[in-house]
Amino acid sequence: MKIKEFLAGALCGALAGFVAASVVNHYMPMSSDEVLHKMKRLLKEEGKVIGSWILATPELVEKNSLTYKAYRGGITCLKDGKEVHYDFLVDSKTGMILELA
Questions:
Q1: Distance separating alpha carbons of residues 8 and 72, to the nearest angstrom
Q2: What percentage of the chain carries pLDDT values higher than 90?
């Protein structure tokens, strides 16, 4: 086998692997753990996170005439010595926050 053939095969294999990984990452939903970790990082700026929960199975939610599979959860932060509770809905596919109250 010539070096050019070997390099062409290796390049094709690497390209196919990259495309496959991109497709899998695009269509694989986020896990509930990933969503909860993301929300904790986001709300850490509001105060110290002292409690959190998330439903492990996404639910169908309709927002603005669109249907999403979303995780529902909540986080409790300590802000200025007081507990503040936040409820959230996060799209399982994109990680977009649909609701934060």
A1: 48
A2: 70
Position 83 pLDDT exceeds 80: yes
pLDDT at 5: 80
CA 58 to the chain's CA centroid: 12
Q: How much is the mean pLDDT over the chain?
A: 87
How do the domains of the chain map onto residue ranges?
1-28, 31-100
Per the model's pLDDT, the better-predicted residue between 38 and 28 turns out to be 38
d(CA 38, CA 6): 42
CATH numeric code, 31-100: 3.10.450
Q: Cα–chain-centroid distance for residue 68?
A: 14
The residues, any chain, with a CB within 8 Å of residue 87's CB and separated by 6 or more, are 72, 73, 74, 99, 100, 101
Selection from 82, 79, 80, 59 nearest residue 71 by Cα: 59
Number of Cβ within a 10 Å radius of residue 99: 12
